């Protein structure tokens, strides 16, 4: 059944382009996450506990 469906899919370049877009975005998000300062991450971590108050500033 899989072979029957893939028999008509001749646009393999679309698969490669989609993969490259996904992989590029994944690398971008990973690099941004690693470059974010620890102070900012800690501020984000305490947002659910703040009750709308402005802590740490």
Word description of this protein:
With 57 residues, the protein is mainly α. The chain has a domain at 12-49. It has three helices and no strands. It has helices at 2-6, 12-35, 38-45. The termini are far apart. The model has no long low-confidence stretch (mean pLDDT 87).
Write a brief structural summary.
Helices cover 65% and strands 0% of the residues.
- Cα separation of the termini: 61 Å
User: How large is the count of helical segments?
Assistant: 3
- The string of secondary-structure elements, in order, is HHH
Q: What value does the average pLDDT take?
A: 87
* SSE class: mainly alpha
Helical content stands at: 55-70%
Shape: elongated
Q: How much strand? A: under 5%
State the total count of DSSP E strands: 0
Q: Name the poorly predicted regions.
A: none
C-alpha Rg (nearest Å): 21 Å
Task: Set out the fold topology.
Elements: H1 2-6, H2 12-35, H3 38-45
Notable characteristics:
3 helices, mainly alpha, 0% strand
């Amino acid at each position: 059944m899989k072979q029957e469906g893939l028999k008509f899919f001749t646009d393999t370049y679309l698969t490669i382009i989609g993969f490259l877009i996904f992989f590029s975005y994944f690398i971008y998000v990973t690099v941004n996450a690693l470059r974010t300062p620890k102070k900012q991450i800690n501020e984000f971590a305490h947002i659910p506990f703040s009750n709308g108050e402005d802590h740490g500033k």
